[in-house]
Design brief:
The complex is a heterodimer. By secondary structure, chain A is an alpha/beta fold. Chain A has a single domain, classed as FAD/NAD(P)-binding domain, CATH 3.50.50.60. Chain A contains eleven helices and 17 strands. In chain A, strands 1, 2, 5, 6, 7, 8 and 17 form a seven-stranded mixed β-sheet that branches. A six-stranded antiparallel β-sheet of chain A has the order 4-11-12-13-9-16. In chain A, helix 1 packs parallel to helix 7 and helix 1 packs parallel to helix 11. Chain B is mainly alpha-helical. Chain B has one domain. Chain B is about 45% helix and about 0% strand. Chain B has nine helices and one strand. Chain B is globular and about 55 Å long. In chain B, about 40% of the residues are buried. The chains are: A alpha/beta, B mainly alpha. Chains A and B meet through helix 2, strand 10, strand 12 and helix 9 of A and helix 3, helix 6, helix 7, helix 8 and strand 1 of B.
């Protein structure tokens, strides 16, 4: 065998898997489909001003419509960050008729760890027990207590700033000092607590350092993270896991290598390695290992498994249950309310805080008080001031307009809902039987729709958000109760769900295939439910836990 | 010269004009790359003059340069050609003749040609030869119509939006008229507003969502 372990993908979970496995003494190969991006050397737009950019940071919309028709819909996609997202024309996928799904992707070393929103929340037992409680999906084989020590470990490594609030539904973590609320947010927090004691607004828990950590510097309050950060102030593969893994001397990294299939030996019922395409030379190559961690991103990990079908496993690798590809999810996401917030005109801020606020879930916890839904929603957002861009919306020209736009504008408060997505068998990934990409690899087909539960949750969220901001003295000017397209939250997950029963789930409680002992899937594909929190921290905790278990199994000769 | 280039469009003239402008008003060259224009759609010199004049009326020179001074006019033309502010969206099927006569091949409105026609019509002659106060008055009337109650879309809104972008993302607009700090270092959540306070053009959240 060439390696002890192969890690497919180098993003948030792939990088962490490589770190944990190499630190456990294993010789690891990490394979990344995209190009190499070197920390501090290849963040080419990091220090650019708008006037240094051909399209002033907004970008060439004509080009984007041709080459980045999906990615351009992502609010993090700009002229500064366009090189951190895929070219949609070169990376096609198909959708079943009636599906509205935008798949936002970053194919490069570091994957979406370079562009992620950095919001880092623990899940609670309201989340791990959700499927069992309301009967949707399959029960998680773990509970919060199983994961708590791994959350500790991950938070301490990646650095999460946040405020302890003592909430059962949003457990506190090992936080760095929190970033500060601005006066409008502080006011809304106080009004909320006075009127609805169970509702808590707190500063976003974000993987941006408020204190330096090793070689990583503290956040400079630029809030341009997706360009790449040479200070290493937010968690990314480049800033954090890759240096740690490389320091062991046991990591090999290959970039520009698209994993097409895993090789499976029916005699031993083990994976023997991976087959990959060298994107530059178009050569097809193999690498062998004693075990494989799939961390290609939820949908791409499922794609690899489906594309690895063989005579022995005709429905896809690790799919004796038949549920591979099913029960995919993304948070139902919409702007619930935006309100003008008068009374703070004499206050402003300096610096750019790289996080907003969060209002922790408060529905359907101990009392089932959801109207037409059984799960939760939370809000993210914050208070901000308008600026010169408001001039586009208003009449006026000349010196008076110029004078007006010179000042910080009106305060407004925004609450965006993230609602739990019910796991449904009909929301699923398959290989398109007709469409292949330029390299002849079958395209992924996405079938996805939100249901009445998500719509009911967002309707209640809109009503709640409007009521809270009005109570705080705001004038609500807009709000929506319908979800955006699937994928909008960029929290796509599921497809290789974890469960107790090999007949109804793909993975066991160690993120390990029920069918194949030396195969682990530790990215978003393993999720059995979605909760309403941002999921990356949980993916990381599950990855650290699985890596520890896998290394032990390997040492003990169990795999 | 490229044979496809329309009359009046010359790289030498463009650069020469910009350099003279920079020398006269003491501002940096507008960072507009010529190669970003599709030669089939490159603007005429008159359109460039008109857009510079209009930009300067929308954001005039005060203690800092105006939008025309910093090359916002050329940025508007570039933005219109490349679909910024949805400028390449197809015209509505029931769009009036005043717009459809300026449709591009792709069905979108050629806003620069429309504005040229519109302002000349309002000036009852050559808008560029009208007195400055008359130009300002005519443009103010157009602006008022474009933002009148019940009006949801108007080509002037697109042009005005690009003027504002061109100005506030220029070095003068972004860092002299407003403040600019790419590396603030710290975040102060509560700062008193004083008569001297100027907004930060580097407040990206405000720019994106404000």
């Amino acid at each position: 065998m060439d390696f002890d372990a192969i890690v497919v993908g180098s993003g948030i979970t792939g990088g962490l898997a490589a770190k944990e496995l190499t630190e456990a003494g294993l010789k690891v190969l990490m394979i990344e489909r995209g190009r190499n991006i070197r920390h501090q050397q290849d963040y080419t737009t990091e220090m650019k001003t708008p006037w240094e950019m051909p399209f002033r940071g907004i970008g060439d919309q004509e080009l984007y419509a041709r080459e980045h028709a999906v990615q351009m819909l992502n609010r993090h996609f700009t002229e500064y960050t366009q090189n951190h997202f895929v070219n949609d024309a070169q990376n096609p996928y198909t959708k079943t008729e009636g599906t509205d799904f935008n798949w936002f992707r970053s194919y490069q070393l570091g994957g979406r760890s370079l562009t992620w929103g950095r919001q880092s929340y623990r899940w609670s037992d309201y989340d791990f027990e959700a499927n069992k409680r309301d009967g949707h999906g399959t029960d998680w084989p773990i509970r919060y207590a199983d994961l708590a020590p791994w959350y500790d470990k991950v938070e301490e490594f990646i650095g999460v700033s946040g405020a302890k609030e003592g909430l059962k539904q949003l457990p506190d973590g090992r936080f760095q000092p929190p970033m500060a609320l601005n006066p409008v947010e502080q006011h809304v927090r106080e009004v909320m607590q006075a009127n609805w004691p169970e509702r808590r607004l707190t500063i976003g828990r974000t993987a941006n350092l408020t204190e330096g950590k090793g070689e990583r510097g503290q956040c400079q309050n630029r809030s341009i993270c997706a360009r790449g950060c040479s200070y290493g102030a937010y968690f990314s593969t480049q800033s954090s896991t890759l240096p740690a893994a490389m320091a062991t001397g046991r990591l090999t990294v290959i970039t520009d290598a698209v994993v097409e299939k895993l090789d499976y030996d029916p005699a031993t019922r083990r994976i023997t390695g991976v087959r990959y395409l060298d994107r530059n030379t178009k050569e097809r190559k193999t690498a062998t290992a004693r075990m494989v961690f799939l961390n290609a991103g939820a949908f791409n990990s499922v794609h690899v498994l489906l594309n690895s079908a063989s005579e022995a496993m005709p429905n896809g690798l690790a799919n004796s249950s038949g549920v591979l590809g099913t029960h995919i999810m993304d948070h139902a996401n919409t702007l619930s309310a935006i309100a003008l917030m008068p009374g703070f005109e004499d206050r402003t801020t300096t610096g750019n805080r790289p996080t907003g606020v969060v209002v922790a879930r408060y529905r359907n916890m101990d009392a089932m008080d959801g109207e037409g839904h059984t799960r939760g929603y939370s809000f993210q957002g914050g208070a901000l001031q308008s600026t010169w861009t408001a001039g586009k919306r208003d009449p006026g020209i000349g010196a008076e307009l110029k004078q007006k736009l010179q000042k910080p504008g009106m305060w407004r408060m925004v609450l965006v809902a993230f609602a739990d997505c019910v796991p449904r068998a009909s929301n699923r990934l398959t290989l398109d039987p007709k469409a292949v990409d330029a390299d002849g690899i079958p395209q992924l087909n996405i079938a996805f729709a939100f249901g009445k539960e998500e719509r009911a949750a967002l309707a209640q969220a809109k009503a709640d958000a409007g009521e809270m901001l009005t109570k705080a003295g705001g004038k609500v000017i807009m709000g929506f109760d319908q979800p955006g397209a699937g994928g909008t939250a960029i929290h796509e997950m599921g497809g290789a769900r974890m469960g107790h029963d090999p007949a109804t789930s793909v993975l066991n409680k160690w993120s390990q295939s029920h069918d194949i002992a030396n195969l682990f899937v530790t990215d978003g594909a393993q999720m059995s439910s979605s909760a309403c929190q941002n999921p990356s921290l949980t993916y990381m905790a599950l990855t650290a836990r699985a890596a520890d278990a896998a290394a032990s199994m390997l040492r003990e000769g169990k795999i | 010269m490229d044979q496809d280039q329309p009359k009046g469009w010359s790289r030498r003239r463009f650069l020469g004009g910009a350099a003279i402008l920079a020398a006269v008003v003491g501002v940096p060259l507008a960072a507009i790359r010529l190669d970003l224009f599709n030669t089939q759609e490159a603007p005429s010199e008159r359109q460039r003059d008109l857009m510079r004049t209009v930009s300067q009326i929308v954001i005039p020179k005060t203690d800092t340069p105006g939008a025309g001074d910093v090359g916002a006019g050329d940025f508007v033309l570039l933005g219109l050609a490349h679909g910024l502010e949805k400028s390449r969206a197809p015209l509505a099927k029931d769009a009036p003749e005043a717009l459809t006569r300026h449709a591009r091949k792709d069905g979108s409105l050629d806003q620069a040609a429309w504005l040229e026609t519109e302002l000349d019509a309002r000036a009852k002659g050559d808008f560029l030869k009208a007195a400055p106060d008359a130009q300002a008055r005519l443009l103010a009337a157009l602006d008022a119509e474009a933002y009148a109650e019940g009006v949801r879309e108007h080509p002037w809104r697109t042009v005005k939006a690009l003027i504002l972008i061109g100005y506030y993302t220029s070095e003068s607009g972004g860092s002299q008229e407003l403040q600019f700090n790419l590396v603030p270092g710290t975040y102060d959540p509560d700062v008193p507003v004083t008569p001297q306070t100027r907004a930060f053009s580097s407040d990206w959240t405000a720019v994106d969502f404000g």
